[in-house]
Amino acid sequence: MLISNIYKTNFINYKKKRTILENVHKKLIFMILFLFITSFYFLTKTNNIFTETKFNFLNKILINNGFIIKNIEISGVNHLSKNDIIKIINAYNDLNIFNVNIKNIYKEIKNNTWIKKASIEIIYPNTIKILLTEKKPIAIWQNRYGNSLITKSGDVIFEKNLEEFKNYLPIVIGQNAHKNAHSILNILGINKDFVKNIWSLTYVNERRWDVHFNQGLTIKLPSESIAKAWEKVLYLDKKFNILNLDLTELDLRNSSQILGKINIDKNLIYMKKN
Questions:
Q1: What is the β-pairing status of strands 127-134 and 71-75?
Q2: pLDDT by residue (tens digit) across 132-167?
Q3: 249 - beta bridge partners?
């Protein structure tokens, strides 16, 4: 019984050692083949003896030995479609992995307006790994050319389907509104409960903003001291709940007074500055 157990143990150990040796052998063969092919490839290329016939011959050898893109790993995608990236990579399907131009792939990926950062890594023999960082939209910009998303730095993101963004992003309207949206949204963001009722902002004559609410109220802000003017708006809302009044307009362009327009007969309400 003891001899039998010893035999079994030795046999198991032998099988493990054999498996390890086989794996090492395979890896060694792969490394030798890899070094030989890559050395030949780059030697011929740098010595200007890389004719089309030789290229096709070597390209075929490399592809037949598995040196071709088979796996595409993409991470960091939220709004962008992975298929858009895969289409760029698929242009290299007929080439061996050594002939894949990473710089060109990077340029093509960066041409997509969603992309903020991109890193590309080739893992031999058959994998390309792409890590992406998308831009974060802060508003929808409505202009004469159509609608697009914008970032806080004013970058424009071209997106065909804007429906999902309309649920939580404000609309900014006007020439160069995309370049100035972040500063005004930063000021308005002091009171989030109040701001969530805003549906759009109009950049008037590239100087100042009109703020439009879902309830039908428009607030005309001044070109200067915007933060102070907005504090007045928040104070009035806290005291009178202005969104529930019949106001259609609050005019704060003059710092010494606030003019309000109501729905009923469109008369003006005049409020002096305290």
A1: parallel
A2: 999 999 999 998 889 999 999 999 999 988 988 988
A3: 218, 261
Surface-to-core class of residue 248, CB atoms within 10 Å of its CB (0-12 exposed, 13-18 middle, 19+ buried):
middle
- Sole residue written with tokens 């063969």: 29
Pairing assessment for the beta strands 171-173 and 156-157 based on DSSP bridges = unpaired
| Run of H or E residues at 193 | helix 192-195
Please tell me whether residues 128 and 236 are part of one structural domain.
no
pLDDT at 16: 54
The H or E element containing residue 269 is strand 268-272
What does the DSSP 8-state code read for residue 68?
S
Q: Domain check: are 145 and 122 in the same one? A: no
Nearest 5°: phi and psi at 31? -65, -40
| Domain housing 152 | 139-272
The first and second tokens of residue 112, run together, are 């997509």
267 and 224, same domain (yes or no)? yes
> Percent of the chain scored above 90 by pLDDT?
44
Kindly list the distances between the CA atom of residue 188 and the CA atoms of 25, 207, 229, in Å, as whole numbers in the listed order.
67, 17, 10
Measured in residues, the chain has a length of: 274
pLDDT on residue 44: 54
